[in-house]
Amino acid sequence: MTELSFAARFNQMAEELASQPALSFNQEQLTFDQLNRRGIQMAHYLQSVGVGQDDFVTIAEPNSVEFIVACVACWKLGATPQPVSARLPKLELQAIVDLAQPKLVVGSGVDGWPSIDQGFRLGEDSDERPLPDVVSAAWKAPTSGGSTGRPKLIVSGDPSIWDDVGRGRAELIGSVEGGTMIMPGPMYHNGPFIWAFVSLLAGAHVVLLPRFDAEATLAAVEHHRGTAMYMVPTMMQRICKLAEQDRASYDMSSLQRVFHLAEPCPEWVKQEWIDWLGADVVWELYGGTEGQASTVLSGTEWLEHRGSVGRTVSGEIVIRDEDGNEVPCGETGDVWMRATDRETAPYRYVGAEADSRDGWDCLGDVGWMDSDGYLYLADRRKDMILVGGANIYPAEVEAALNAHAGVQSSAVIGLPDQERGNQVHAIVQPSHGTSINLDELRMFLAERLVSYKIPRSFEFVDEPLRDDAGKVRRSLLREARL
């Protein structure tokens, strides 16, 4: 097994794939040689302001060339990129930086911390002298805690080393040397971060979009002849809701693998994508940023196990009841995971404690296993709504709402009810230019949900309820309405 540091791997590709495209963003394109040079230049600058091996560097850049270059520069110094949203409110960013204690904040000013402005670039004549070969103890440290409002860092237990494990990941997601990965997701999220950089390290061309736009994503696939693409179900739904003639006008024939992850995928969305692109193209992955275990599911398998998120491909997964006892197949319980076949822990938290028991972790998901070992998810335990003694999972209600042609997105929360404890409340963002008839919407839901799951109250809003990574902060939505 040949191992290279990320720093050495970028040097290698700069020699072997020098003139091949590495990164495209808007109208700008960098070859592997140019990306490596930009990374070395920025590394010298970071070093000059005090960044060294195993230091955190908070990166608050939006999707951009600068984001990618800053990460490469970190690995050139053996430092750890710590990505955050460029749109974080000042106090939330401050809280994350106070946790991370980085040597530098890239892309935003934070009181009391050295920083450089968003979009900062060095001149062409900047220092390009070779740097010593070093390895970051942790190759990434993204944040989480969106549902609680309290940030935490999830520091990877994997170093910045390119080896057969990385090559296997690249092969799984469809990224090979000379291939093209279309990336419309926000890079501060774990999924897009992994998919983009594993693709780059494999020698694939990454086409990074500024943000998700349904038609712009399809246009990027056609223009760049994309062979692989990252999706979340929110994106998939928005593409499904394009006018049929608009969607059909783009050539998707180059796509060989589309992976979706990060949130539950409604069955109607999955089926429509399989019908469109083929079961062999549409794949799914389930797992946490923590990396204890994961499942993978091909479209062909999904047709035989509808609703599943796949079988375990790394680590171990079991379903347990509230007392910690493993439950029989088909019975719902908490999803517990543990890493196997590794000497070090897959992650560590900064700012939180793991829900752990005897070496197993629970991330809060609820689900069950079938007799063939396929995992099915209900929702997250903390999002469950208890109504008159019945458990209602918001994801199921949202899937029914989002199937309506006039619904752009939705979020379902529980609000206090004196008689039944809670009532189901739906917050709905109508599609642009659409007016939804509430009686018709209720009839639509009655064809898909048992009566007690149909929301008792509805609210219509103009603003998006989910980000481009498919994430929704239900707890904050609930607090605002209380």
Structural commentary:
- With 482 residues, the protein is an alpha/beta fold.
- The chain has two domains: 4-369, 3-Layer(aba) Sandwich (Rossmann fold); 384-481, GMP Synthetase, Chain A, domain 3, CATH 3.30.300.30.
- The chain contains 14 helices and 28 strands.
- It is globular, with a radius of gyration of 23 Å.
- The protein starts with a strand and ends with a helix.
- The model has no long low-confidence stretch (mean pLDDT 92).
Shape: globular
How many strands? 28
Task: Output the CATH topology of the largest domain.
Answer: Rossmann fold
Could you tell me the mean pLDDT?
92
Counted by DSSP, the helix tally is: 14
Strand content: 25-35%
Calculate the terminal CA-CA distance, rounded to whole Å. Answer: 57 Å
Structural class: alpha/beta
CATH class of the largest domain: Alpha Beta
The count of domains is 2
Helix-strand blueprint:
Elements: E1 4-5, H1 6-16, E2 21-25, E3 28-31, H2 32-48, E4 56-59, H3 65-77, E5 80-83, H4 90-100, E6 104-107, E7 115-117, E8 143-144, E9 152-156, E10 161-162, H5 164-172, E11 180-183, H6 190-201, E12 205-208, H7 214-224, E13 228-231, H8 233-240, H9 244-248, E14 257-260, H10 267-277, E15 282-287, E16 294-298, H11 299-304, E17 308-314, E18 316-320, E19 333-338, E20 347-350, E21 356-357, E22 360-369, E23 375-380, E24 385-387, E25 390-392, H12 394-402, E26 407-417, E27 421-430, H13 438-446, E28 457-460, H14 474-481
Parallel strand pairs: 2-12, 4-5, 4-6, 6-7, 11-12, 11-13, 13-14, 14-15, 27-28
Antiparallel strand pairs: 1-10, 2-3, 8-9, 9-20, 15-16, 16-17, 17-23, 18-19, 19-22, 21-22, 22-23, 24-25, 26-27
Helix pairs in contact: 1-2, 1-3, 2-3, 5-6, 8-10
